[in-house]
Write a structure and sequence with these properties.
One of its GO terms (molecular function) is phosphate ion binding. This protein is of the alpha/beta class and 321 residues long. It has nine helices and 13 strands. Strand 1, helix 2 and strand 2 form a beta-alpha-beta unit. The longest helix has 59 residues.
Length: 321
């Protein structure tokens, strides 16, 4: 009797131990499987994210955009676009000039993706500046330029105003050649004109003269016309076909613009209608990269905005940084 009872108890203990072992084994398997599933899921999510980022990057460096506006910016933007497209052959970037007013109008209307301007959007009538996003990609200096045989290299701001308002009509009045002055202007929509009038002529309106839509043509006419004077961005002074003028003894140089000593300069704005997206955003990011800001930009005669020791607001107020 006692023996039978002991055997029953032993059997019961073996059964309980077996059940406990089975439960422990099952729980361990579930946890391990869960861990494997979670690990696989994590790896898959990471792979998916990486693939998505890669795809987004490739997609944003492809497609087509159109840029228009400032002729002062055109050499820089065109060169940057060529460089970008050589690195990203799936991208097509069309760069047109036409003046700052055109760039601001067209980007506001949505007919171009980026509108370039030498002036703040707030300065142009009829432009919904609050709808546009400003990307200051560079600074450019500007000065008056004359035909090489005019015979002067420096002019006071007061005499410059007299030349452009028609009060002085012959270069001999300033110690130059005995030749009549021919004014070469940009149209009212031009940001180059607005910058030159505001900071070179202190807001005085130029007299009538030859009016040209692009800085390239202005440079050509000055170089071909005896006695001619106009105004150009520093980036156009790549040869001796025209003579850039110092003003009040201050040379028209990048260093003097950066320090604030030379008065005629402007931010180079690239405006988008709302936040930039896709290829437009990728290209604007590229414009702000070291490759452009410290490489192409100075090569093309522009100044990095980060190097400026002064800054200017939409009202034209200049202050030290």
């Amino acid at each position: 009797m006692k023996k039978t009872k002991l055997l029953s108890i032993a059997a019961l203990l073996i059964l309980v131990i077996g059940l406990l072992a089975a439960c422990g084994s099952g729980n361990g398997e579930d946890e391990e499987t869960g861990g494997n599933d979670q690990s696989d899921s994590g790896a898959s999510a990471s792979d998916d994210t990486s693939s998505e980022d890669e795809g987004a990057s490739e997609e944003s460096a492809s497609g087509s955009i159109t840029i228009s506006g400032s002729s002062a910016m055109q050499p820089l933007v065109a060169a940057a676009a060529e460089q970008f497209m050589s690195e990203n052959p799936e991208a097509d970037i069309q760069v047109n000039a036409g003046g700052s007013g055109t760039g601001l109008s067209e980007v506001s209307e949505g007919t171009v993706d980026i509108g370039n301007s030498d002036v703040f959007a707030e300065e142009k009538d009829g432009i919904p500046a609050d709808e546009l996003v400003d990307h200051k990609v560079a600074v450019v200096g500007m000065t008056a330029a004359v035909h090489p045989e005019v015979g002067i290299e420096d002019i006071s701001k007061e005499d410059l105003k007299k030349v452009f308002t028609g009060e002085i009509t012959n270069w001999s009045e300033l110690g130059g050649a005995d030749v009549d002055i021919t004014l070469v202007n940009r149209p009212d929509s031009s940001g180059t004109r607005a910058t030159f009038v505001n900071f070179g002529l202190d807001g005085e309106t130029p007299a009538e003269g030859v009016t040209e839509d692009s800085s390239n043509t202005v440079k050509q006419i000055i170089g071909e016309t005896e006695g001619a004077i106009g105004y150009l961005a520093f980036s156009y002074f790549t040869d001796d076909s025209v003579t850039p003028l110092s003003i009040d003894g201050v040379e028209a140089s990048d260093e003097n613009v950066q320090s604030g000593e030379f008065p005629i300069w402007a931010y180079q704005h690239s405006y988008t209608n709302g936040e930039a997206e896709g290829l437009a955003k990728t290209f604007l990011d590229y414009m702000m990269s070291d490759e452009i800001q410290t490489g192409l930009l100075p090569e093309q005669g522009y100044i990095a905005a980060t190097k400026m020791e002064v800054e200017r607001d939409a009202e034209g107020n200049q202050t030290d940084k």
